[in-house]
Batch of 2 targets.
Target 1
Amino acid sequence: MKILPYSRQKIDSHDIKEVTKVLKSNFLTQGNKVPEFEKKIAKKIKVKYAIASNSGTSALHIACLSLNLKKGDLVWTSANSFVASINCAKYIGAKVDFVDIDSETYNISIKNLEKKLIKAKKNKKLPKLIIIVHFAGLPCDLKKIYKLSKIYKFKIIEDASHAIGAKYYNSLIGNCKYSDITTFSFHPVKIITSGEGGMCLTNNKILKDRMLLFRSHGITKDNKKFFIKKNQPWYYEQQSLGYNYRLSDIHAALGISQLKKLNYFVKQRNKIAKNYYKLLNDLPLTLPKKIKGYYSAFHLFVVKIDFQKTKKSYNQIFKYLRKNNIWINLHYLPIYNHPYYKKLGKNKKEFNNMENYYKSAISIPVYPGLSYSEQIYIKNKLKKIL
Ligand SMILES: Cc1ncc(COP(=O)(O)O)c(C=O)c1O
């Protein structure tokens, strides 16, 4: 029997045709496919600027750099995320800290964030930047976080790696109405893929220009922006220390083709989620929270095991499902528990909700192409082991 992963890509003949066209063209990189991908994403999301990069991680890094993050600045993120959500600040030498999650949405807890901000203000240790994560595709409460950012004067990056296609009160996540920058990831497990790839979105021209520089070695070829005025046609100049974080045209062509199917992919994920809400209703599990006005992209479908109603251990359940080809995962181990971050010596008492969450959470398969009979199979295996 085939493996059922927690998520995966769906590639069709149109995707293959579009990538092949680039392979047969003159430009494998730095051609016109990347600008086309950027324009199409910006138009779809209704945001002014989109800057493609070669991963969600590099997108987060140039986003931090463009906000002038410096060594020693303080950055916070949710305890429940992939490490890239905070590594991006570490690359710059920032000091990092985490905020506990909400026990129902598994997103950053607004209550805990506010408490932590009040305390930080007293101690004169307010963060310069908070990176919020729309975990599993469910939007954070953007209006409330934005309001806090005005009071406590921090910048906001939305890590929307899980949430392209998600909606917050009818607006697509990524329009930056309540943030400085949003980032996407196009890794194959995500909603749409470009193989590897990422994107930064913003309405701020200065940030856009900085991100473009950092993406490509800190070099500009635009004579209107030169520090040293030269008329020679061959001239270009490096103005800051940048990277090669460019996306190739091969990847961009796949991204453009996948973008056409964004609505369909998100609908399919929501359809499977709807089936799961019915199929798993009477099992000893907590199903993902639904919030009125929010439309999740369901990058993940996380269920929490009710250990009061089942006598099995987390490991037994995990192993049994994997043995039966259901390739479930834990999203996520608290970031502060990774050996690299353990040296920060975080007090677990500050993260009660996260501690309870990760000991019982598993992500079960959700992706376009997961058939109804496979969903039934997953339900039956869950029922048996629980
Ligand atoms: C929340 C989150 N942020 C950032 C990333 C990094 O994205 P990428 O793998 O494209 O570098 C991921 C990828 O798993 C993610 O889940």
Target 2
Amino acid sequence: MAYGRLWPAHPKPLPDELLSSWIVRVAQANGIKLQTLCWMLFGNERSPWNRDVDRSAPKWLIKTICEHTGTRYWDAYHTTLTTYRTILYPNRRRSGQLRWILPIRTFAMTRKGYGQQFCPKCLAEDQIPYFRKAWRVALFTFCPKHQVMLHDACPLCDVPVAFHRSDFGVEQGNMRPIFCCYACGFDFRAATTTAATFPSKEIGELFCEVLPFLQAPIVRMERFDQGFFVVLHQFCRIMGSHQNAGNLRRFVANRLGIDLTEIELGRTSIEHRRVAERHDLLLCALWLMASPTERIREVWEAKAVRYNLMLKDIGESPKWYLQLVGKCSNWRLGYRAI
Ligand SMILES: [Zn+2]
Ligand SMILES: [Zn+2]
């Protein structure tokens, strides 16, 4: 395989495919080890696996892969999570948490963190199995196509999914396919599935409307703009916080007539929670988002959430939210119809 020329096999990114998934497929299609491919492309110093390559792929890395696969730059760029910027989070940041983006901790080549999810049915149906960008987004707790919960770890050994490690330390030819756990070999396509359930039709419909919107090739600023996701995130944070002590979640659960599951309260952000907890938080937060004008008032009057907590650490927030919360600023005067 000569450097600087188009490689014999040059698969293009599949719909909504993650950059890391595509790189792994490129190596496998050419019958070379991923490590060898990365060494040839980037050298030892610049291994893409020392970073969260899907989150922050440098231009040179994308350009190099494009050269060898005959892919257009923007098609390759769209395999990175950067395309969620301005819709899910405001700025490109090299470090720290990105709002709604699930973290995978990278240290050398070991990934710790349950930030890579998958849908067994999508993988099983794929002619060429691959990993989607949407599976790295905290809002995706279930697959909108198959209506089943996503897995955020290997169902057999509970190790985080790290498909790029499948050929590390093994001989060429013994590589595990992308859909198998690198640690125990379990075939993710055979994982059992649990149907996604929603406490009300309204919440189910809203959830099922939000997710495909994020998967659209070009994210349009319509109903679900950055402001919507900022406020949704804020309610998830409030419900997971010590300060609120579960009051808001309890109120919403009572209102919906559902049982409240235990979640760990504290500083853990939604992005660091496992999929089941995220799903629970999102269901309650979406109840508020389905009708914010009435429901923000309702939860405040029921003392399920305090005024200052609704604004705490929110950063940039949409005008409509500030106006609604502003009406809750004085408990003595009550909700003010401004
Ligand atoms: Zn699916
Ligand atoms: Zn496993």
